[in-house]
Design brief:
The chain is mainly alpha-helical. The chain is 53% helix and 4% strand. The chain has a 3-stranded antiparallel β-sheet. It is elongated.
Length: 301
């Protein structure tokens, strides 16, 4: 039975929606966090007395967005999408009769070209970790594997020992939405991984039995935050002045493959993209890079 509208609690309904996203659609933790952030903000707007759920109309969405100062076009688009999905859920559950924002469209936003490293910069980054320490060898193996296989940050930190078949040259990776894919690894990366597993991983103090591939100083699985921090550190050591992230290595993997003549469909499969249009953005990287070099170095640029 549909509850009385006056008894609707926005926070509770947001919680119910997030549970459905987690259990029904099996969204990644990062995507769930984004939905949660957007909808908590929306719930706070409603609880502020501006308008109730049952009386919410399209014009109220504009008031809500106007209350959020300094949002980028991308943030506005995501916020609209989250609110629209939330109302769709309320209608599906019989809590509301209609979705008041079903016809609202997010602003058109351009997709930025991915940032990536030159081959020389990648070589400098991979050579930066201290090979005389367990952490340095772990970091070197992580960096080489990320560049060799185009892994996302979450895919790296959730890798387990049994996911790696170094002899066959493949990794089994758990990607977005719990989808597993098999990715080949370059021999140099696999050799670095074997060296880490055989001689350096046992030096980490594993207090609890864990099959996590990459361990922290405390013997726990490496976190995303640690991964970001270590990449930033070695980038500084390598003299790379631009700010890079785990995704920079993933972009570099794709861009360098395509620049070398790799098939777009093969790169799509290795990256784990559901839609080839997501992969196609890398086809614009090399020409753009050439234009950048031309502008920078040509005397008439």
């Amino acid at each position: 039975m549909k509850p009385p509208l006056r008894s609707l609690d926005a926070d509770a309904l947001v919680d119910a929606f997030l549970v459905e996203l987690r259990t029904g659609r099996r969204l990644s933790p990062n995507t769930l966090e984004a939905y949660g952030s957007d909808l908590r903000r929306f719930s706070a707007f409603l609880s502020g007395g501006s308008v109730s759920l049952e009386k919410f109309r399209r014009g109220d969405l504009l008031d809500f967005l106007s209350s959020l100062r300094g949002l980028s076009s991308r943030s506005v688009a995501r916020q609209i999408s989250s609110v629209r999905s939330f109302f769709k859920f309320l209608v599906r559950e019989g809590i509301l009769d209609a979705n008041p924002v079903s016809e609202v469209r997010a602003p058109s936003i351009g997709r930025p070209l991915p940032k990536y490293l030159t081959v020389t910069e990648v070589e400098s980054l991979l050579a930066a970790p201290d090979r005389a320490t367990p952490e340095g060898m772990r970091d070197r193996a992580m960096l080489m594997l990320m560049y060799a296989a185009g892994l996302r940050a979450t895919e790296v930190v959730t890798l387990r020992i049994e996911n790696v078949d170094a002899n066959a040259g493949f990794l089994r990776v758990l990607g977005k939405g719990g989808k597993e894919r098999v990715v080949p690894g370059a021999e140099a990366a696999l050799e670095s991984l074997r060296e880490y597993l055989d001689g350096w991983r046992p030096r980490f103090p594993a207090k609890k039995a864990t099959n996590a591939l990459f361990l922290s100083r405390l013997g726990r699985p490496v976190t995303r935050q640690t991964l970001w921090n270590r990449i930033a550190r070695w980038a500084r050591e390598a003299g790379i002045r631009t700010r890079i992230s785990p995704h920079t290595l993933r972009h570099s993997f794709a861009g360098h493959l395509l620049a070398g003549g790799a098939d777009l469909r093969a790169v799509q499969t290795m990256l784990g993209h559901a839609d080839i249009s997501t992969t196609q953005i890398y086809t614009h990287v090399t020409p753009e890079r050439l234009r950048e070099i031309h502008r920078k170095h040509h005397p008439r640029g």
